[in-house]
Amino acid sequence: MSTFQELGLNQDLLNAITDLGFTKPSEVQEKAIPILLETETDLVALAQTGTGKTAAFGFPMLEKIDVNSRTTQGLILSPTRELCLQITNEMKQYGKYCKGLNVVAIYGGSSIHDQARDVKRGAQIIVATPGRMKDMISRRMVDISKIQYSVLDEADEMLNMGFKEDITDILSHTPEDKNTWLFSATMPREVAAIAKNFMADPQEITVGNKNESTTNVSHEYYMVNARDRYQALKRLADANPDIFSVVFCRTKRDTQRVAEQLIEDGYSAGALHGDLSQNQRDLVMKSFRNKQIQMLVATDVAARGIDVDNITHVINYQLPDEIETYTHRSGRTGRAGRTGVSMVIVSRSETRKIKSIERIIKRKFDKKEVPDGMEICEVQLMALANKIHNTEVNDEIEKYLTNINQLFENTSKDELIKKFFSVEFSRFYNYYQKSKNLNVSEGSRDRESRDDFSKNSNSARYFINVGSKDGFDWMKLKDFLKEVLELGRDDVFKVEVKDSFSFFNTEKDQQEKVLAFFTDYKHEGRFVNVEVSENRGGGRRNDRRGGRRRDDKKGGGFGNRNGRRSNGGDSYSKSRRSESGSREERPRRSRR
Ligand code: AMP
User: Fold this and answer.
1) Separation of 54 CA from ligand 1 center, angstroms?
2) CATH topology of domain 217-372
3) Greater confidence, 459 or 91?
4) What is the pLDDT of residues 330-377, one digit of tens each?
5) What pTM was computed for the model?
6) What is the C-alpha to C-alpha distance for residues 583 and 585, in angstroms, rounded to an integer?
7) What pLDDT sits at residue 227?
């Protein structure tokens, strides 16, 4: 293992490194810095975020550029605004003793004229997102015709985000003889093609294996029925009281929905996705960084460039469509030498994907059981006990002690401890005492799936007076219900379409919302009726209501409607429902 001095960095950079507290180079720095300092070469480096790659290209670039010239000599392209700002900030810190250095960030969502003005003042290094860079080139606000070093950071992400054409266009404005340094966590074909087309005989370095996940991260999966995903998520959070996590969902809508539900259930959660304004996203990220948010629920695109070092858990609420994306997700934890856990909640049908991911990341997953309610109660109790044990006494309490002592005069220490802990413990205990086992096993498909619908008191089955005559098959009906009820992909299940009517299931706690919505809903000019069915799904059909259609009049007495039309957002109840379906007081989570 070398030192930073041995890598050949100059004194200005070494002083900055000392200030930053970096004691030794990371693997990617040890491999890349000597190559980039000693040779004028192109480079392909396979390295995850969090491995210190910014410094791996940043130090050599800072060492090589001429700070006495105002010409732009280095260009760093990065996929997101967040990452762009992060790199700019790091470069400024690394170059804090390089007198005359000017690093400018160029990204969308901020004044293009301010950025053009900053560049005009003489930026030796520009850090940019591709879209804004291209825009500024076409408006002649930047000149990159003399750059000597270009970096494509998180190249796989940039290509994933559809920046290929922008990158090609930008590079066409740069000199042929510049050096290009490409950094990527994974090496899909598209990245290899960029390396082939835009680089001359690049040197290659790999930190770990290609696509391989960092060894600091352990990988776990939890197998549940698809519709128990949310319950499983809550249990994983409750079983880890100090969790500080990113929860990944596949779509913006699921992201919003899961975050809202978590907030409603008393967790400190926030949503991060592309439908939020930049300002909203900045606020969420600020709260997350300050740890006011413990669970950041995010889409893959929005989470790109999250540079928070101490994330303890990544939770894959749903697996990504592209398996390679898993590497990026899990790379959000285990950064800067820390350890982390990447958890995946899967349904039985997704276990194949786990095997494929294992092949890609070259690491094995541990199959874990979702903790049962009593385990969680114990974990929470012990977390509280430890917290109290480690709490420093506030002397201000002294003046209230006489009254408190009087109150507990006849209470023994044992009794007092029990009472004291019961305040917190009872909330979790009441919530979890009737909780079911969420785990399913790979081998028990048939029996379990029958049980899901025939016995599971958590689901409600409905009759709906539309069927194949109305142009529905099960898929269309499921899509229709998901759409109008604003439910997620797992929330409507066991859809059975008949001629003029159909059946479907939702979780029981959606029942009120479902019935309320269909009190006065018209589809193609006629009222749609929904009522709770006695048919629990599978087997015997409840055809009694088969011919019953209500085409002509509004209102009318199907089911236990409350006449209120749900608008999705206000349908969440203010009190928490227990997993077994009954209402109860929400176990308020103590802020940690
Ligand atoms: P990066 O992979 O560039 O996003 O870096 C991840 C984090 O590691 C950043 O917060 C860096 O400041 C930090 N870092 C980079 N190099 C080192 C090093 N040699 N020792 C300790 N921390 C480092």
Assistant:
1) 7
2) Rossmann fold (3.40.50)
3) 91
4) 988 887 667 899 999 998 878 888 999 998 888 899 999 999 999 999
5) 0.55
6) 7
7) 83
Structure tokens at 125: 């290094």
Query: Is the Cβ atom of 76 under 6 angstroms away from ligand 1?
Result: no
Closest CA to 264 of 590, 513, 575, 581: 575
Helix, strand, coil percentages, rounded to 5, for the chain: 40, 15, 45
Q: Token match 């079983």: residue?
A: 239
Average predicted confidence (pLDDT) for the chain: 83
Which architecture, in CATH terms, is 5-206?
3-Layer(aba) Sandwich (3.40)
Residue 176 has pLDDT above 60, yes or no: yes
Domain residue spans of the chain: 5-206, 217-372, 374-434, 458-561
Specify the range with the lowest mean pLDDT, choosing from 28-37, 84-93, 411-420, 528-537. 528-537
Q: What is the pLDDT of residues 247-299, one digit of tens each?
A: 999 889 899 999 999 999 999 999 999 899 888 998 999 999 999 999 999 99
Protein residue whose Cα sits closest to atom 6 of ligand 1:
50
The angle at the Cα of 1, spanning 91 to 213, to the nearest 5 degrees, equals 70
- Assign 416 to helix, strand or coil: helix
Pull the structure tokens for residue 375.
Answer: 């385990």
In angstroms, what is the span from residue 93 Cα to ligand 1's centroid?
12
- Pocket perturbation via mutation, ligand 1, pick of 27, 53, 90, 207 by most ligand atoms within 8 A of CB: 90
CB 259 within 8 A of CB 297: yes
Distance CA(90)–CA(106), nearest Å, equals: 15
Neighbours of 92 (CB within 10 A): 18
Residue 289, amino acid: R
Beta bridge partners of 105: 127
Token output for 131: 């879209």
Rounded distance from Cα 82 to ligand 1 centre (Å): 16
Any atom of ligand 1 within 6 Å of the Cβ of 55? yes
217, 342 Cβ separation under 8 angstroms: yes
Tracing tokens 């520009």 back to the chain, one arrives at 126
138 HSE (CA, 13 A, CB side): 7
**Residues 495/477, Cβ–Cβ less than 8 Å:** yes
Output the CATH code of domain 458-561: 3.30.70.330
* pLDDT tier for residue 213 given thresholds of 50, 70 and 90: low
- Please tell me the distance from the alpha carbon of residue 213 to that of residue 447, in angstroms, as a whole number: 36
Among the listed residues 205, 155, 145, the one whose alpha carbon sits nearest the alpha carbon of residue 177: 145
Burial of 240 by CB count in 10 Å (0-12 exposed, 13-18 middle, 19+ buried)? buried
Let me know if the fold of 5-206 is the same as that of 217-372: yes
| 335 touches ligand 1 (CB under 6 Å) | yes
Find, among 338, 336, 340, the residue nearest to 23 by Cα.
336
Which one-letter amino acid corresponds to residue 268?
S
Cα separation, 540 vs 64, whole angstroms: 77
